[in-house]
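Usage

Read records sequentially. Each one opens with the input sequence:
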Amino acid sequence: MLLRYKKTYEKIAMGLLSYMPVDKSVKKLQEMIYHYETDDQWQLFLLKEDDDFIGLVGVIVGDTTYTLQHISVNPSFRGEGIGKEMVMKVQALFSDKECKGTEETDSFINKCKEIEEGTDF
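and closes with the structure output:
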């Protein structure tokens, strides 16, 4: 189940964000979370299965596009298609918008496109 971020998930979200290959300092993670908490265009979602949060996806939503800013999967669940599942769920949420990537997420989005040919991103 994809859940919208709320303040009670802060530590979980910071933990999942720390798996991304970016600056993992606590200050940088807190800055990222702050953007998701204060800017309506920054939207963060956590993937929960059973009682575990296993992934996170963050987007910046514009008028006609959304940018996949962050995507992270708990290492224990990698290789199971969780990242692709989250990308597809976000695409369903924003089906009227085009998906864009960042330097960090672009290659993953392209990989998902190759796997899911015929899907509009």
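Summary fields computed downstream for this record:
- The helical segments are 10-17, 26-38, 82-93, 106-115.
- The chain has four helices and five strands.
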